[in-house]
Structures are given as structure tokens and as C-alpha cells.
Amino acid sequence: MKSKWLSGPYVIWMVLFTLIPLGIVFYFAFTDGAGQFTLANIQRLGAYLPILLRSAWMSIFSSILCLLIGYPVAYCMSKASPTRQKIYYMLIMLPMCLSFLLRTMAWVSLLEDTGIINNALRSLGLSPLPLIRNTGAVILGMVYNYLPFMIMPLYTVLIKIDRRLIEAAQDLGCNQVQVFTKVILPLSVPGIVSGITMVFVPAVSTFYISQKLGSPGAVLIGDVIESQFKGAYNPNLGAAMSLILMALIFLCVGLMNHFSGTDDEEGVATL
Amino acid sequence: MRKRLVTLLLTALLVMAAWPITASAAPGGTINVYNWGQYIADGTDGSLDVIAAFEEETGIKVNYVTFDSNETMYTKLKTGGSSYDVIIPSDYMVGRLIAEDMLEPLNFDNIPNYQYVDESFRNTAYDPDNLYSVPYTWGTVGLIYNSKYVDNVTGWSSLWDPQYAGKILMFDNCRDAFAIAELRLGYSINSSDPAEYQEAANLLQQQKPYVQQYVMDQIFSKMEREEAWLAPYYAGDYLTMVEENPDLSFCLPEEGFNMFIDAMCIPKGCTNKEGAEAFINFLCDPEISGRNMDYLGYSTPISAAKEYMDPEVANDPVAYPDAETLSRGSSFLALPTESTQLMDSLWLTVKTAGGNTSFYLWSSAAVLILVVGLLTIAKIRKKRRIARRGCSRRPENP
After folding, report:
1. Through-space distance between the first and last CA atoms of chain A, rounded to whole angstroms
2. Does B15 fall in a domain?
């Protein structure tokens, strides 16, 4: 009973700032400017399906890249001495202390045609590279900004792995690779799942990164939603887009949890 | 104990932060001013700090906020939540705000400096009875280009020139962008004909592969650093940019161009109307206007202000073109709601067009099939496994 009371403030918070706004999003998505019920906003969404899918693909790709980069980092971190772990932890968290916008702007001034990298190339007598305004730059921006979200859950899971399990595997004749694939990897699946979720969800709805680093020919769904609320004043279409984006996120996260669920089971079974 | 003290202090800080700002009210109250970005002299480069001068003279405190397009400002007003006392939108937006009954009529007894405003800036098309607005600046929209890389610029068609692909910037607001396309096509910038809109949208879509980015205030830094070579923008801002990069040139296109007036208004829901009128009055003071325009580079609607300005600025042909050039210009009028909506949705189409759409559709379909396939295989395998194990073990998911 007591614990219920303690969660009271958050419940109120959630109702006020999550459930009610969500209801408002639904209301806007299914009404027109005059407040009449309409399905026109939902019907218009078909035209934006390629943009939605493009956003999804780029975020999935970024999540996978984050995993490939983040896993070895988190693994090495978990193996380091406690003092070193603290230093690494701080170094990874450090960029997060700076504003997200500032970090993206910094990438712009690095990658621009007249940016730091291209100016350096030019002064060396080399021809400048097309570094900005392409898909690669957007993915770079996503990976750079969201990598800590991948490393942190992985690290938390990896340091909790019982060393005795690894020793047991070694005693029973596993080599290094087998220890990793049969023990460490299955046990770190929860970290992988939450890491991918933490990267994918903000990446798919981002708008700033693509505006600054992407080409004008490859806008993401976040940009379109932003334009509907900021410039065009069509909150109804914007709300409908947000709804469909939310549905997509739920679908992706649900699918991933499903797969990780079966993996986890097998992991436990092999042990 | 120390920890507890820190917690207490932090809590106190949070409570303080939540305290309404009005608690520390200035004697003359506070006004919220909502203006374009980089659109008032702020004391840099030896200019006059207009807001500080106003605060000192009247004791009214100014909260100064900026927007980057008329549409952003409109949305902010429309969605509510924050109240402003003075806004400075452009002509057609003033017209739209008047039509939607979103402005307070001004009390000109509190704005005696209105007498200095030139006759040609009174009884304008957007505010025919002079009830709601006082002009702040006027100017033209022209083509800014870097003469180091670009030459022979006479008209808007340079913005469609493939040889400058990737070095062209374009307006990130639909009214200004459509105006350029309409002028190229020879249509009126106040057209409300859907067919003409469609043609303009097609033209803008053709331009898209050559556009580096759709931007507003970022044009300053991009042009100054030569990241981009060609951009349509406001004449006054060109004068600011050319101080940083002397290679920049300005052209008022032969096809015609937009002439605008930005005017000060008081929106409905303001909390300090008298303070707002005092601010408007202050900005109409010839000396203040002159020194403000010296910094801005925009043109003043108050001729008396010119004697307080740097003569070079006051006679600059970019800021004050001759009558013959000005005859090519035309002003925006407020458009009917349906036209605005059509333009918005066409603009969205222009901005979202491009990219390899079919690739994303096909790859997504392929992945979807793969996922469904994997799911069924996993299900079948699980069933078999359970069947094989029989009753020797409890199933994991009862």
C-alpha cells in the first residue's frame, strides 16, 4: 500500500504530461482545422511512407553501427580496473554534457565544403571531399550523438556477468571464442536490446541532424513533422504523422523484444 | 549532513527557478518583444544598444525573443501559451493578422513620433486605415552572389543554373520561395490561381537538385564563409554581409522582386499595451531609427532619420534604389486561407521530394517478408522442441 502512495507523484505526472498530451495528439490527428472529425490526415500519410521508411532504415543502420562500435568498447570497459572504468565512463558521458545542438553544429563546421577538414586538405594541396549533405553524414551524426546510449546499457549488463560462469566454461573446455559466443553474448542480450532501443527511438524521430548534415533531397520524417508544427501551421497532419511514427516505433521495438525473448530463452537453456 | 545541505540548496534553487519572473518587476513593467533574428542594433560593432537605451529612458524592462520567418511567428501566436506585447511581422502577415482579428488597434496618442513616418508608408495596402501597425523598416529581396565564383547575374534564373549546383541557397519559407518562382514565370506574387501555384511548385522542384540547403538566418554565415555562392535574401542583410566579405554582390533581378515593409504591431493578449506603445514610439524617434538602421542596413521609412545616419549608408543604392528600379518591385498582400493552405502543402511536396523512394519501399517490403518468415520458422521450431521434450520438462511459458 505504501509503495503505491510513493509512486503517486509520478502517476500524476504521467497522466498530465504523457496520457493527456497523447489524447490531444489523437484528437488532432482525426480532426481538421475546424475541429470536425476527418480521416483526411491519415489518408494523406501514404505520400510520406517513403520518408518514414527512409528514416527507419537510417536509424536501424545507425543502431547496428552503434552496436558494432559500442560492444567492444563496453566489453573492454567492463574488463578494466575499477579506476580505469570510472575514467572511461566519464569520457563517454562527457560529450553528453554539451548541448546536442552544439555537437551537431560542430560536425557541420568540420565537414562543410569550407570546413576544417576540407580546408586542411586544400592547404595540403589535395582536392576537397564531399563530406556533408549525404546519407553518410546523417548516419555519422546519429552514431556520434547516440553512441553513449548504446555503450551504457551494454556496460551495465557486462559488468554484472558472473565471472564464475566464464571460468566454468573455460574449465569445461571452451576456447575464447566459444566463451564469448556461448556465455557472454547470450547473457548480454538484454543490454543489446535496450541499447538498440535507446538509439533507434531518438534517431528515427530526429530532425536537427538531418537538417544540418543531410541533403535537402533526403528529409526525414522528423523534419516533416517539425515543418507542420513550426512553419505551415498544420498541426493535424503533423499529429497524424507523429501517430504513425509512434506505431512504427512500437512495431520495431516489439519485434526486437520478441526475437530477443527467444534468444534469451535459448541462452538460459544452453547454460 | 553536508549532503543534506546540498540537497536543500538545490531544492531552493529549483523553487527559485520556478518563481515567476514578474516578481522582480521593473518600475515601468515588462514588455515582451518578438522580432526577426538579427534585427535590432545590439551594441556590437560600436552601434547603439537600442534595447538598453529604451530601458534606461523609460524604466520598462524588455524581454527580447526572435523568430526566423513570418510563418514561425504566426504559429507561435496561434498556438498561444506565450503572450507578446510587440511583434514585427512583414506586410502580408500584418494583413493576415488583421483579417483574423489577432491585433490590437494602436493608440496613436502614445506614439507621437508617428508624425515622422513618411507619407508613402501610411495607408498601405495591408493596413489601409492605419489602425494596427507602424512601419519599422522596408527593403527589397534580391539575389546575393559571390563575384569570385559567379558572374553575369541579372535575374532569378541564376538560381536554377546547374553549374552552381550545391552552392545555391534557397529561402526556407514558402511565401518568399514561391514568389521567386512566380516572378520567373511572369506571374503575380499575389496570385491565387491554383494552376499557377502548381507551375511554381514544379519549377521549385526542378531547382531542388542544385540547392545546397533551405535556410533563413544561416545565410549570413554561409555566404560570408563562401560555403555557398548564391542566395536570395533581404537587401539590408546583404549590407551586413558585405562588411564581412567584400566579394559579395547584390542584384535586383530583372524579372521583378518583392518589396516589403516590416511593421510593429501589438497582438491581442498583450499584457502591457502602454509599454508596447512606448517601445514603438521609441523606435520611431528619428535619431534612434537612424542609428538603428545604420547597424541593420535596412531602409528606414522615416526620412528624417537619414541625417543621423552614416551618409554612406543613407545614400547606398542597395538600401535606397532609384525610382526606376523600385518600379519593378511589388509588395505581398495577404492571401486567402485556401491559397495559403495550398501553397503550404505544395511547399511540403517540394521539400519532401527526391531521394530513392522505390528503393526504400522495396527493401522494406523484403525485410517485412523476411521477418514474417523468420517468425513462422521460429514458431515451428519451438513447437517441435516442446513436442520432443514431451512432459519431461515444464514449458518455459506456461
Report:
1. 38
2. no
B361/A53 touch (CB, cutoff 8 Å), yes or no = yes
> Domain containing B37 — which CATH number?
3.40.190.10
Asked if B123 and B270 sit in the same domain, the reply is: yes
Q: How many domains does chain B have?
A: 2
Closest-CA distance, B321 to chain A, in angstroms, reads 31
A252 interfaces chain B, CB cutoff of 8 Å: no
CA dihedral A74, A78, A80, A84 (to 10 degrees): 70
B144 lies in the same domain as B211: yes
> ∠ at Cα A216 (A61, B35), nearest 5°?
120
Query: B187 and B152, same structural domain?
Result: yes
Residue among B208, B344, B360 minimizing CB distance to A232? B344
Q: Which candidate in B71, B73, B75, B223 is best for mutational testing of the A interface (most A CBs within 10 A)?
A: B75
Can you give the residue range of the structural domain that contains B156?
Answer: 139-259
- The last residue of one of the domains, among B348, B375, B393, is B348
Backbone angles phi, psi at B36, to 5 degrees: -60, 155
Same domain, B151 and B212: yes
Domain's final residue, options B205, B228, B259: B259
Find the closest chain A residue to B395 by CA distance.
Answer: A265
Q: Over its length of 398 residues, how does chain B's per-residue pLDDT go in tens digits?
A: 455 555 555 555 555 555 444 444 456 789 999 999 889 998 887 888 999 999 999 999 999 999 988 988 998 888 876 789 999 999 999 999 999 999 999 999 999 999 999 988 888 889 989 999 999 999 999 999 999 999 888 999 999 999 999 899 999 888 999 999 999 999 999 999 999 999 999 999 999 999 999 988 889 999 999 999 999 999 988 988 998 999 999 999 999 999 999 999 999 989 999 999 999 999 999 999 999 998 888 999 998 998 888 888 888 888 899 888 888 988 898 889 889 889 988 998 898 887 677 777 888 888 888 888 988 888 888 888 888 876 555 555 54
Looking at the fold, whether B211 and B315 belong to one and the same domain comes out as: no
Query: Residue B373 falls within a domain, yes or no?
Result: no
Residues B30 and B58 in one domain: yes
Cross-chain Cβ contact B364/A56 below 8 Å: yes
Put simply, the answer to whether A227 touches B351 (Cβ < 8 Å) is yes
Angle in degrees, CA B82, B88, B94, rounded to 5: 95
Using a CB-CB cut-off of 8 Å, the residues of chain B touching A40 are none
- On whether residue B364 sits in a domain, the answer given is no
* CB contact A116 to B (< 8 Å): no
Task: List the single residue in B with minimal CA-CA distance to A112.
Answer: B227
CA-wise closest residue to A226 among A200, A212, A19:
A212
What is the predicted ipTM? Answer: 0.80
Contact B60, B54 (CB under 8 A): yes
Identify whether B393 is part of a domain: no
Alpha carbons A50 and A224: distance in angstroms, whole number: 12
Same structural domain, B325 and B186: no
Cβ-based neighbours of B129, under 8 Å, separated by 6 or more: B123
Which chain A residue lies closest to B79 (C-alpha atoms)?
Answer: A233
